[in-house]
């Protein structure tokens, strides 16, 4: 595919690359990131102008019905990544490395990441961890794989962290900063900061040359990310504090399903216009 594509929502545009995110940070421009797990949402979000689409291990909860992100496998995520990467014209697609697929060694991490690039068509990969994951990041980058890091609250480590808790308060802020500096030095092109106090995230954003992406980390980050089912109201129930809901997709879908069910049972559908 060429570097430039013509999209229906605007003038000629470029495929979003890591260099573009760096240039946006230098200009003080913010960018958006959403999860996506299928071709149709990927097409919509791409058309909307979302710069980065994350095929997250959150597919474990949002697609496969697990209660946490831990059970999802590489073999389950790669087809989802391929569906998203094949559907977009502009957005960068990032494949999320699942729990147990990279922590053992830099070589394990590289081989897993290579599968996401070769089989899934990902443009980059994401992994969780700070200082301790620097060797993995360095190995992937040396092997030609762009890496997005993830620090602060890291869902794959929820049991070790004692549950869903804000990370980096008080004296722990220095640890988050060290993690951020370590992943930058290892070669990551961006870092997600999850559930980190806003003032800490702002300081890190000012100090780093690479892009920061917040999720529950305040407005001073270079970009923001949300799980699309949370942000657009496909999921019901209690939401994390950092989620803002921009739509109520679940209610629209529920009303449509009820209308369909009613028309089938009454005999109204299919009508003459829907019959050969």
Describe the structure.
This is 3-methyl-2-oxobutanoate hydroxymethyltransferase. InterPro entries: Pantoate_hydroxy_MeTrfase, Pyrv/PenolPyrv_kinase-like_dom, Pyrv_kinase-like_dom_sf. 3-methyl-2-oxobutanoate binds at residues 57-58, 96, 126. The protein has 276 residues and is an alpha/beta fold. It has an eight-stranded parallel barrel with strand order 3-4-5-6-7-8-9-10, surrounded by seven helices. A two-stranded antiparallel ribbon has the order 1-2. The termini are far apart. The protein has eleven helices and ten strands. The chain has two domains: 18-245, TIM Barrel (Alpha-Beta Barrel), CATH 3.20.20.60; 248-275.
* Helix/strand class: alpha/beta
Question: Going by CATH, what is the homologous superfamily of the largest domain?
Answer: Phosphoenolpyruvate-binding domains
CATH architecture of the largest domain: Alpha-Beta Barrel
Strand content of the residues, in percent? 15-25%
CATH domain topology of the largest domain: TIM Barrel
Please report the number of helical segments: 11
Unreliable spans: 5-11
- Overall CATH class of the largest domain: Alpha Beta
Major sheet size, sense and barrel closure: 8 strands, parallel, barrel
How far apart, in Å, are the first and last alpha carbons? 40 Å
Mean pLDDT: 93
- Order of strands side by side in the largest beta sheet? 3-4-5-6-7-8-9-10
Shape: globular
Secondary structure tally: strands:
10
Note the run of SSEs as H and E: EEHEHEHHEHEHEHHEHEEHH
Give the tally of structural domains: 2
| Rg of Cα set | 20 Å
Helix content: 25-40%
């Amino acid at each position: 595919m060429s570097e430039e594509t013509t999209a229906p929502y605007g003038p000629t545009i470029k495929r979003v690359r890591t260099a573009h995110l760096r240039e946006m940070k230098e200009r003080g421009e913010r960018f958006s990131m959403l999860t996506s797990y299928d071709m149709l949402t990927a097409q919509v979000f791409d058309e909307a102008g979302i710069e980065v689409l994350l095929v997250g291990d959150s597919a474990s909860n949002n697609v496969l019905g697990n209660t946490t992100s831990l059970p999802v496998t590489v073999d389950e995520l790669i087809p989802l990544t391929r569906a998203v990467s094949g559907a977009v014209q502009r957005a960068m697609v990032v494949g999320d490395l699942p729990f147990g697929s990279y922590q053992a060694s830099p070589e394990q991490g590289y081989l897993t990441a290579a599968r996401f690039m070769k089989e899934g068509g990902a443009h980059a990969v994401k992994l969780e961890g700070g200082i301790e994951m620097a060797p993995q990041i360095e190995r992937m980058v040396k092997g030609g794989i762009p890496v997005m890091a993830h620090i602060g609250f890291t869902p794959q480590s929820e049991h070790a962290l004692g549950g869903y808790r804000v990370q980096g308060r008080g004296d722990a802020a220095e640890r988050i900063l060290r993690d951020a500096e370590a992943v930058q030095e290892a070669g990551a092109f961006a870092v997600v900061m999850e559930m980190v106090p806003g003032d800490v995230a702002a300081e890190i954003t000012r100090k780093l040359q690479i892009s920061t992406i917040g999720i529950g980390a305040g407005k001073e980050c270079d970009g923001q990310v949300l799980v699309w089912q949370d942000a657009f109201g496909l999921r019901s129930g209690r939401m994390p504090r950092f989620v803002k809901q921009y739509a109520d997709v679940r209610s629209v879908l529920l009303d449509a399903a009820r209308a369909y069910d009613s028309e089938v049972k009454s005999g109204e559908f299919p009508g003459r216009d829907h019959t050969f």
